[in-house]
Amino acid sequence: MDVLTKVGVLCSSIPILFFLYINSKNIENKKRLEKYMQLEKNEQPSMQTFMLTKEKLLKVLKPLLPSPSTLENTQIDLERAGVKYSAEEFYAFRWTLAITLGVFMSLLYIPYADKMLIFGGATFGLSYLLPHKLVSQKIKARQRNAQFEVLDFIDLVANGMEAGLDLNNSIDKVTIQMPGVLAEEFQRTFSEIDLGRRREAALRSLTERLDIEDVTLLIDAIIQAEKTGVPMAKVLKDQAKRIRNNYKTNALKIAQAASIKMLAPMILFILPALFIVVLGPPFIGIGKLMKF
Q: Which of 140, 158, 193 is where one domain is finished?
């Protein structure tokens, strides 16, 4: 076989090998798709069962739900805590948890009716109040984390805008590089804007979910700058400067209050011990002289 024949065979085999490779990839992708569709089919009945069970439970517990105003306030608290459930589902969970644990604790003390009533009632009350307490703690934790993040977040966004990015692209870059509460909330806000919500309304909703003064002032400044045409980078730098000044002021207040807070421990614990050490020996000596 001469050289030209070998080259011809090689060149003709390349398309065939390429076709076989593409065909194997298509077969592999088809198998993956079939497997994914099979998983969806298997999960769909269980999801439907779960949704039906939840709807029936909400229907049964509907008389126990509070007033619409209370549900609205609870929904705001759940959003501030980052809990992705409705207020009705939250109250249904509280009642279900309280009733289940209350009955279980009561059954442990059969046949003692007094202990069943005391421990069952106490467990019922604590189980009903516990989820609300956990939500309150989560709200405080998210607000504290957002307060810690806001200064670095503003600085990074301002630096991105000074580098040539617009506000949205700069925030997108920062949310990717700096995950946290603020990143999560801004991503949600931009998703709402992409779905057709007005920009100002979406930003106002962000301030309501976080309920932090620095974030509220920041959003107000951004909205005002967009309306008046003020350079956004300058607005962000001014906001960062304001937050730094607030940090310094708060640190000075804490330092000044520390001396006042130290008075009570000094008077109650340190000064008595000091008096005993300093005046104790002279009084002991005077007492011995008076005996003679």
A: 140
Tally of CB atoms within 10 A around 28: 10
DSSP labels, 105-150: HHHHTTT-HHHHHHHHHHHHHHHHHHHHHHHHHHHHHHHHHHHHHH
In whole angstroms, what separates CA 131 from the centre of its chain? Answer: 16
The answer to whether 135 and 83 are in contact (CB under 8 A) is yes
- Write down the pTM of the prediction: 0.65
* Residues of the chain scoring pLDDT < 70: 1-58, 60-61, 291-292
Does residue 38 sit within a domain?
no
**Residues 158, 131 share a domain:** no
> How far is 44 from 52, CA to CA, in rounded Å?
12
Instruction: Tell me how long the chain is.
Output: 292
pLDDT in tens, 95-126: 888 888 888 888 888 877 788 888 888 888 89
Structural domain includes residue 184: yes
How far does CA 30 lie from the centroid of its chain? 39
Helix axes 232-261, 113-162, angle to 10 degrees: 130
Residues 6+ apart with CB under 8 A from 214: 147, 150, 239, 243, 246
Tell whether 67 is covered by a domain.
yes
Boundaries of domain holding 93: 63-140
Q: State the greatest distance between any 2 C-alpha atoms of the chain, in Å, as a whole number.
A: 135
183 and 201 in a single domain? The answer is yes
Domain assignment of residue 225, yes or no: yes
**Whether residue 97 is found in the same domain as residue 174:** no
Q: Where are the alpha helices (DSSP H) in 163-270?
A: 167-177, 181-194, 199-210, 213-228, 232-261, 263-265
Q: How many structural domains are present in the chain?
A: 2
Q: Are residues 168 and 148 in the same domain?
A: yes
Asked if residue 131 lies in contact with residue 94, where contact means CB atoms within 8 angstroms, the answer is yes
- Are 209 and 224 contained in the same domain? yes
| 3-state SS class at 83 | coil
